[in-house]
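Entry 14. Ran structure prediction on the chain below.
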Amino acid sequence: MDKTPTSQASDVAGIKASFALDSGHPGLGGNTGTNLGEGHVALDAVGSESARRAVDRVSMTAHQTVDRLAGRASRLAAKVDEQTQRLVQAPRQAWAYSKETVQTHPVQAVALSAAAGFVLGWLVSGRLTRRRSD
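Output, structure tokens:
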């Protein structure tokens, strides 16, 4: 720590230059109008190389975290888009399948419809009869 005033001044100038933070990530300085470099003013007074390295590591970790989160968000958005497309296509595919089945097996389609109608009518009329008797 035996530094001359000139070497301390050059260290402080070097630290100021190295902490000019313009990351390009919204919320991390530069483009947002927020000057994160203000937090480094305290380090200018210390002039510590280890403090500068620690801030560099924190800054790099923050950038990596933002990049990783952005990648995950992008993958999640792609999955949501894919699932939305499947949900939109499902009714169309069901209608096409039903139409094809009725055209290839008309007798079975009529029999199935009659059976479904019978069961539905039986369920509804049975419930109505029970309510009337109560």
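Residues 15-34 have pLDDT under 50 and may be disordered. Will compare against last week's run tomorrow.
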